[in-house]
TrEMBL record:
PROSITE patterns assigned to the protein according to its UniProt record, in alphabetical order: BTB, TLDC
Listed PANTHER family: BTB DOMAIN-CONTAINING PROTEIN-RELATED, HL07962P-RELATED
Protein's name according to its UniProt entry: Btb/poz domain-containing protein 19-like
Origin: domain of life: Eukaryota
């Protein structure tokens, strides 16, 4: 039977590092006035690090009087101490470091190729230093882009910037972004911005790179040639056909001299000739994540909106594209914010016309909801409509798990009472977070939990036709 004393073993190796007994490695860390001599043991470094194993075996390191000599001017003594302590005993404390220092430490760890520590520091930054990561998105993004091993941070930034591109596009440092990185971002189908905003941001970047005036009337032939050269790699990445006609005329066509002539001709034909389809050699697909309004919700994201709009209009064949949704969804009520009571519900939602509501069932992954095309006002019992529906997402993180049921008995579609929340058919919201559902004939069975259940939170949105 074997016994394990990992903590004791770790402490002993840490003492070995601190006491320097029998060291055979000397590392000069830092530069100029901040150089410090640090001692270590080659056998431990070789076992724990591919970098040191390669350095010693290939004689990168100078050897003098039986000791290896390494010089690391680009790693501070403090960071090297932290890294070596981890190599010796597997312990690292990041809590006392500020965000910029954690990132610098990560760069140093990457140079020494310690993979487990690279993953750990990235995870720490994402979980505990998000405020720092948002302070200088351009600078940090470029640092991340330069290091292939920073995959977690790259995915974090790419997702964040695609969801909220203004973080980058409106940054003062955006104009300093490297061309290769800008090109990579513009290729993204998930960039959640109007195409005209992306075009204007690209122009701003280009004019800053060339230190050039943005007024086409002041350009000469040499200026036009320079701008064309700077923009050439990006033109195919702009979805020009997705720009509104008025924006095309006032914000794109005025720059016709710097755009390919065939593209300008095709766009003019597309906007002027009725029912003209885009030229297939110039068309690029819509970006996926663009809504024409900001969705204020803690329960759903933009992926739900095409479904809701399509259900409202009873589209059978395909869902709306996000760019083509004919409705806006304005938050009227959030139970966690406005209170779990009927009075608050009616105060916020009565006389607002059509609404759609969503509710998270406590202790499950289910998200249920319904559409009321009428209103919630009046203490009048049943209201009649043939257009209402209930829905159920058995897994709220996966919109493909949706189940939909349009009303069967239109005279029992919506129930309005002053002492109840949103109630439809046999689904009743009592005057609290307690709800009840009895499967019946009012709506089809879509596998909503039968009987009494508790709602964790629910939201109601006014459905506004554009």
């Amino acid at each position: 039977m074997s016994s394990k004393f990992w903590a004791e073993l770790s402490n002993d190796y840490e003492k070995l590092f601190e006491t320097e007994i029998g060291y055979d490695v000397i590392i000069y860390a830092g530069e100029e006035s901040n150089i410090k001599e640090i001692h270590a043991h080659s056998n431990i470094l070789c076992i724990r690090s591919i970098y040191f194993r390669t350095a010693f075996s290939n004689e990168w390191a100078e050897k003098k009087d039986g000791k290896f000599i390494l010089r690391k001017p680009n790693i501070s003594p403090n960071f090297l101490n932290i890294i070596l302590r981890f190599i010796y005993c597997g312990n690292i404390e990041l809590e006392n470091l500020q965000g910029p220092d954690v990132l610098k430490l990560l760069v140093a760890v990457d140079e020494l190729n310690i993979q487990s520590l690279i993953s750990h520091i990235q995870e720490y930054l994402i979980e505990h230093q998000t405020e720092f990561l948002h302070q200088n998105p351009t600078g940090i993004l470029e640092t991340v882009y330069q290091h292939e091993t920073f995959t977690d941070l790259w995915e974090f930034y790419l997702e964040k910037i695609c969801k909220e591109p203004k973080i980058l596009l409106e940054s003062d440092e955006f104009i300093n972004l490297k061309a290769s990185l800008l090109e990579l971002l513009l290729k993204s189908d998930d960039l959640n911005a109007d195409e005209i905003e992306i075009w204007e941001s690209l122009l701003k970047w280009c004019f800053a790179q060339l230190s050039m005036n943005n007024d086409p009337k002041k350009w000469n032939k040499e200026d036009i040639t320079k701008i064309k050269g700077s923009l050439s790699r990006f033109i195919s990445l702009i979805r020009f056909y997705n720009i509104k006609p008025e924006d095309f005329f006032y914000k794109v066509y005025c720059y016709k001299d710097i755009l390919p002539q065939d593209l300008i001709n095709d766009l003019l034909e597309f906007h002027i000739v009725p029912n003209m389809k885009p030229k297939t050699n110039n068309i690029t697909p819509l970006r996926k994540s663009s809504l024409s309004f900001k969705l204020d919700s803690r329960l759903i994201d933009s992926e739900y909106i095409p479904l809701f709009a399509s259900w409202i209009d009873k589209k059978d064949s395909s869902n709306y594209d996000k760019k083509m949704i004919p409705y806006e969804f304005k938050l009227l009520y959030r139970s966690g914010q406005n209170g779990f009571n009927a009075t608050s519900f009616h105060r916020n939602c009565d006389n607002k016309g059509a609404t759609i509501w969503v509710a998270k069932i406590q202790g499950s992954t289910q998200l249920i909801g319904g559409y009321n095309p009428l209103d919630w006002n009046g203490n009048c019992g049943w209201k009649s409509t043939a257009d209402s529906f209930l829905f159920n997402f058995t897994d709220m993180k996966n919109t493909s798990t949706a189940k939909l049921g349009y009303v069967n008995i239109k005279d029992c579609a919506v129930s309005c009472y002053n002492d109840r929340g949103p109630s439809m058919g046999n689904l009743v919201c009592l005057n609290s977070n307690k709800w009840t559902y009895l499967s019946g004939t009012h709506y089809p069975n879509i596998d909503i939990i039968s009987g009494n259940f508790t709602i964790e939170d629910f939201e109601i949105f006014q459905v506004i036709r554009k």
